[in-house]
From TrEMBL, chain A:
The keyword Kinase applies. Its EC number is 2.7.13.3. Pfam families: HATPase_c, HisKA, Response_reg. This is histidine kinase. Gene3D superfamilies: 1.10.287.130, 3.40.50.2300, Histidine kinase-like ATPase, C-terminal domain. The modification 4-aspartylphosphate is found at D71. Residues 20-136 form the Response regulatory domain. It comes from Candidatus Sulfotelmatobacter kueseliae. PANTHER family: PAC DOMAIN-CONTAINING PROTEIN, PHYTOCHROME-LIKE PROTEIN CPH1.
Length: 396, 142
């Protein structure tokens, strides 16, 4: 590897760099001097010379030289005007002013106006160095422009895919549900009106058909909920104590029925969307209640400060998750149990993952089968924490 | 007011029309149901044009949104800007739960918006409520 690099460098030193230069110069002797200097500096130059502003503009419209070398004083016009023409033609070509002695102020002014460099005629040996640097800078600019174009393309692509998703959500909310509703309603009607006249098997089939249609309805609803996560979000500073409290209120029935105890204390202030974070805690605590073992559920919500984020934990004493399933639980419609054991569609944790990721955090679970589970996720710490401290310090 | 109210049911789905008729047939209001399958025919019915020259002016329009040719929102826009028709109450009754459909329907002057419930029992209650509210409690213009 290093040998190859060394050879490459040697090759570059020996072979000349090709360079197309456009000289803006009214003095032929000076042009000769410049070209000789470039050859001496390791360039294999192909050059053209223009003298007037009109010629210069015409040349720019038909060719793309690597570099423009313009005399500062050109009898009827000035190299600075060449800069102006370059700009109005919208060309990004390095322009180096070459001239007899002028003051430092003028040199600075030229650079300000957009000249790449300023080289004095009695120090022409500096010209090759100056050109090499100009070419490197031009390439960097080009690469950045390409990267920016690529980024803009990606952003547009993302926006389009978001629009598609929204369209999909709408299609799901209407076009999918309409026929589904028909199946469910008429199967139900069949069951209600004709159950007495049918035999046991027929009633069983109707029951299965109805159950399938009703489950499909909840699946479509869940998919919709999932696809809507992240739209219309509003970021505010939230006391996560209050967020957990709201989640618990929504879970009141399940809490009472299971006799669950939930511990949480001194949770931090975070930045996020209230509705979504309530949903996040509600899904996690709801799961902790649902997947309880023989004992009544005991659930602990806590938070630990890592560098610029808070790591939350929702831990339970439930049935736990076997090591090989720890990843799968976050995949939409993935379920580890039959519906008879635990009802549900397998959307809750997928929604949690989406919410956490939309907030710039990560989510994972630590668990062993039979030993409870700890769902952990991170949320960005509220920058106001730091600001608050500064204010206090100043007051003190 | 006439003895039996007239309802114009604008819906292209025969299954939903069937369910709605089931409910209304069993009710005490004995509503007359007139069904048209799309927005164009709904407008023709209301303006007594084409084959509807003898059509009766309905007391209530129950309007689906997604229909071929002319959709429900176009019907809403047309009826609610027509001084001769705008007093007829319009209930939007559709599968869509979409926020933009709900908002836009009210903007266009819908008198209420009901999403068709997926469950048969809830569907029946919804249709019963529509009839009970508009013909049991509400005073309608003559």
């Amino acid at each position: 590897m290093s040998t190859t690099a060394a050879i490459d460098r040697a090759t570059v030193q020996e072979t000349k760099t090709r360079l197309s230069a456009l000289l803006v110069e009214d003095n032929l002797a000076d042009s000769e001097l410049v070209l000789r200097e470039l050859q001496r500096g390791g360039f294999e130059v192909s050059s053209e010379v223009v003298q007037t502003a009109a010629d210069f503009r015409r040349k720019l419209q038909t060719t793309t030289p690597d570099v423009i070398l313009a005399d500062y004083n050109l009898g009827s016009w000035r190299g600075m005007e060449a800069l102006e023409i370059l700009r109005t033609e919208g060309r990004d070509i390095p322009l180096i002013l070459v001239s007899g002695a002028v003051g430092d102020v003028t040199a600075v002014e030229c650079i300000k106006q957009g000249a790449t460099d300023y080289v004095l005629k009695d120090a022409l040996a500096r010209l090759p160095v100056s050109i090499r640097r100009a070419l490197r800078e031009k390439q960097t600019r080009e690469e950045r422009r390409q990267a920016e174009l690529e980024l803009a393309r990606k952003v547009e692509e993302l926006a389009r895919s978001n629009r598609d998703l929204e369209q999909f959500a709408y299609v799901a909310s209407h076009d999918l549900q309409e026929p589904l509703r028909m199946v469910a309603a008429y199967t139900q009607l069949l069951k209600e009106r004709y159950a007495d006249g049918l035999d046991e098997n027929a009633n069983k089939y109707i029951h299965y058909a109805l159950e399938g249609a009703l489950r499909m309805q909840t699946l479509v609803q869940d998919l919709l909920t999932f696809s809507r996560v992240g739209r219309n979000r509003q970021r505010t500073h939230l006391a996560s104590d209050a967020v957990v409290q709201e989640a618990l209120q929504n879970l009141q029935a399940a809490l009472q029925e299971s006799g669950a105890v939930v511990h949480y204390d001194n949770l931090p202030v975070v930045t996020g969307d209230r509705t979504q974070l309530v949903q996040l805690f509600q899904n996690l605590i709801g799961n902790a209640i649902k997947f309880h073992g023989e004992k009544a559920p005991v659930i602990t919500v806590s938070a630990k400060k890592l560098a610029a984020e808070w790591a939350f934990s929702v831990s339970d004493n439930g049935i736990g998750i076997a090591a090989e399933h720890l990843e799968a639980v976050f995949v939409i419609f993935q379920r580890l149990h039959t519906r008879a054991e635990y009802p549900g569609n397998g959307v809750g944790l997928a929604i949690c993952k989406k919410i956490v990721e939309q907030h710039g955090g990560r989510i994972w679970v630590e668990s062993k089968a039979g030993e409870g589970a700890s769902f952990k996720f991170t949320l960005p710490a509220c920058p106001a924490d730091g600001e608050g401290n500064h204010t206090d310090e100043r007051r003190a | 007011m006439k003895d039996a109210p007239d309802i114009l049911l604008v819906d292209d789905n025969p299954a939903d029309v069937g369910l709605t008729r089931e409910v209304l047939a069993a009710s005490t209001h004995h509503s007359n149901i007139h069904n048209v399958p799309d927005g164009e025919e709904a407008i023709a019915f209301l303006r007594r044009r084409g084959k509807y020259t003898e059509a009766i002016r309905p007391d209530l329009v129950v309007l689906d949104l997604n229909m071929p040719r002319k959709g429900g929102q176009a019907v809403l826009a047309e009826v609610k800007t027509d001084p001769g028709l705008r007093t007829i109450p319009i209930v939007v009754f559709t599968t869509s739960h979409a926020e933009k459909d709900i908002t836009h329907s009210y903007e266009l002057g819908a008198n209420c918006y009901i999403s068709k419930p997926g469950n048969l029992g809830d569907f029946f209650s919804a249709v019963q409520s529509i009839e009970e509210f508009w013909f049991g409690f509400t005073s309608l213009p003559h």
